[in-house]
Amino acid sequence: MRIPLRLAATVALAPLALHMAGAAAQERSVQLDQISVEGSGVPQPGPGLGNGAATSGGGGGPSGVVGYTAKASPTATKTNTPLIETPQSVTVVTREQLNDRNVQDLNQALAYAPGTSTDVFGFDPRFDAFYIRGFSATYDGVFRDGLRQSAVGLAVPRIEPYGTEAVTILRGPASGLYGLGSPGGIVDVTTKRPVFARFGELWFQAGNYDRFQGNFDFGGPVEGSDGTMAYRLTGVVRQSDTFLPGATDDRFNIAPAFTWKPSADTTFTLLTEFQNSKLPGTSAFYNFPGFRVSRLYQGDGAFNAFTQQQYRIGYAFEHRFTPDLIVRQNFRYYGVNGDFPYVQIDSVTGLTAQRSTGLFIENLQSVALDNQIEGHIQTGPIAHTLLGGLDYLHYDWDRVGGFGTAPDLDLTTLNYGRQFIPRPVLTLAARQSQDQVGLYLQEQAKWDRFVLTLTGRHDWVSQTTASGVPGALGPSTTQSDTAFTGRVGLNYTLAPGLVPYASYATTFTPQVGADASGRSFRPATGDQIEAGVKYAVPGTNITAAFAGFDIVQTSILRQDPNNLAFTVATGEVRSRGFEGELIANLAPGTNLTLAYTHLNFQFVSQTSLVTGQPIDGNYLSGIPGDTIKVFGTYLFPPSSPLHGLQIGGGIRYASSSFADDENTVRNPTVTLFDALIAYDFAALDPKYAGFRAQVNAFNIFDRNYTNCQAGFCYRGAPATVIGSLIYRW
């Protein structure tokens, strides 16, 4: 069975002092569809940036949000820096865009952002598996509220998009602030947080494949707290089949949150979540030789229920001693438990398919802590924003598993689910733990039209691994690595809102194992040169950006040419290209996003896993060289006879790519179309205020498409339609 584990687990590796004060935070008003933008009761990040998020940095999320546009984000700097002053390429997917597109998973949230490849593995509801600038980000590129989301093996936490306020994509190396990670970039998910105003929202959804879902989100100030406490409760309940025979996509998610704000200077927010999912054990279809994808689903409903529970509890604390001295502490405990049964077709003989089974049971617990201190000083004409931090990440992961056989499948009747499939005997086990400590410093110096960003970080990573059989693991092996990473960037305001920039950044990723001589693999290291220009059109909510980049990653694993049974850390890859992006809010409910990416990702020094021969100069398979993504909405104005109606649509174009890393066969180009139509019933009568009907359609022309990566081919999602009835108050 092929699953996105080729993305290969780069296995991502306090006291709380509350300052008491008597002044109560004041309640503020919100708009029903922009509850994140208003009502935070937080001092604003700076002139012209609009309303702030829950905290000014360190996971607080973007600010200055209007429609699809945002003015500032803490993701690139851990301070609430205007996007045009960050020395790397950043995209913010706002709550309004998530609502309009009614995204159902993280991949859909990223689908219209530049630099991202989200359809590499076709339709697969099990994992958030995607690439940024050609590099996998599944295991070491997903963050939540500024803290790394650990993922190992099949224990990969899933993001519920309805519980998120925004999704921010930082492209390029981020190790200078976040430690080990993907050279392509990171995705930081901002959780919905309480606001000091009453609000509520209910969604009722129905779609094809018997999809039924209910969403709820409500909260406000706590009665009797004198405006110092607020709560929020967000949740999703879904029961759904899929186009995979006998496969479900069921989910229950609930996320309570609580904020205590005893003064204008102190904020403590508790963030929790519990999620239970029932998913297919496999999303693959049988492949015939020659990269031909059949309609023969590999799974079987009799042994196909991948059940996963995940839970988290954490907090975000911020205190301002003065406007120029701020401390923050962000903490989270995460747990993921899952049973992963699957059936796969090994071969086809005549009208019968021969099958085998597998079963993995995995548990992952992780703790993440980030302490920050931010200071602002002035030395002559230079304004300094200084940031220092110490963070810690620990996880424990264990797995038991086994393999077995399944009865043959009759291809004349396709008797899925009608035969008993025995549960495999658990014969293998593994355990792994990892600790990472990082110390980082950053200087943002602003002088006249220049902004200089200097970031440096040192990491200490230790990983212990053991394997064997259940109840009898072999001896543990421990590997330790240290690395220094950094970034230097320069922005220059050429004209109001027009800012060219250039930056250099480095990254590293520990690698578990040893070569033929028994020496531990040194970490994979990478660096990037990026240059571009950002433009925030003065007096409007229109932003544009263009960036060119060159990323090299070295010391990655490849087959040892002198001993084919071992690997050596001498591989190298290179990602070069450029991206262009336009995001505009032209009027309430009228927005546009436009993204273009050209990517050239090649193996500089690598060995084929299929032939054992060098594939130097070949292109990475499954990743298109050119993508064009456009999505827009239009809300008819009050003067129009169609007042209350909103229409929208999107186009996703992906050019041809190679189907295998040996570059023998190409994937075809693919163009997909999405659509939106919605109506606000308040346009009929004010007494219907808050009621909205919305229909979203994905791949509306039902394009039958596949994508092959590393020699295995995956089917894309067929046409999907979801209707929603929404009530906000």
What Rg do the Cα atoms give?
Answer: 25 Å
- The third-level CATH topology is Maltoporin, Chain A
CATH-level-4 superfamily name: TonB-dependent receptor, beta-barrel domain
**Proportion of strand residues:** over 45%
What spatial form do the alpha-carbon principal axes imply?
Answer: globular
From the N-terminal CA to the C-terminal CA, the straight-line distance is: 48 Å
Low-confidence stretches: 1-56
* CATH architectural category: Beta Barrel
Q: What helical percentage do the residues reach?
A: under 10%
Under CATH at level 1, the class stands as Mainly Beta
Helix count from the secondary structure assignment:
3
Question: How many β strands by DSSP?
Answer: 39
User: Structural class of the helix and strand makeup?
Assistant: mainly beta
The pLDDT mean sits at 90
Q: How many independent structural domains?
A: 1
Major sheet: 22 strands, antiparallel, barrel
Q: What are the defining features of this structure?
A:
729 residues; Maltoporin, Chain A; mainly beta; disordered N terminus; globular; five-stranded mixed β-sheet
